[in-house]
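Hi R.,

Here's the chain you asked about this morning:
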Amino acid sequence: MLYRANSNFRATWRGTENEKNNKYMNQEKNKTTGTKPPYGLGYLGLFPFVGFFVGIGLTFYGIVKYKDKKLTIIGIACMLFSVVVYASIYYIGFKSEAGRRGWETHAQMQLNTLVRHIEFFKLENGHFPDSLPQLGVPFIWDPIQPIRSGRNRQFNFKNLGDRYLLFSSGRDGIPNTDDDIFPEVNPNSKNIGWVRNP
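And here is the predicted structure, written out as tokens:
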């Protein structure tokens, strides 16, 4: 009975001793072969998209190959840096006031260009198009309207025969409200068929 207790103690003691030896052997192996953990690759984490994938690799190597806590932390930091950068870009570009004003300016420019295309369509065909896709141009989509909104993302267009309506629904996405955006066209011009109100 005493022998068994001692043998269990010896096995446990040998187990912890073997773990220490393995860790020491790995460190010695790295020293003798000259392979140090690639800490320098962590600088690639400063490039957001590439850095995310480098971070995955460094984390994997830190856990599996080198068993190095510092390398693992560097890998995680690379991934987190990419996430923070892209989240900031999304917020500034789409959710902040400055970002929204920027998209409104972009919509205004697109509306002005669409007026030229609609007028040219009339010169070629003798009538205004029935819908914006008939123009065959790629910028008929209102950049202010979110992709997942479930609303019509095209600019509002209606052929009135010898005139037409064209505008953006603005931030709220509801037509005929105060935040609607119209093309910069002289509404009293007799040469252009655009009207603000039917």
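One quick note: Residues 148 and 173 are 12 Å apart (CA to CA).

Cheers,
M.
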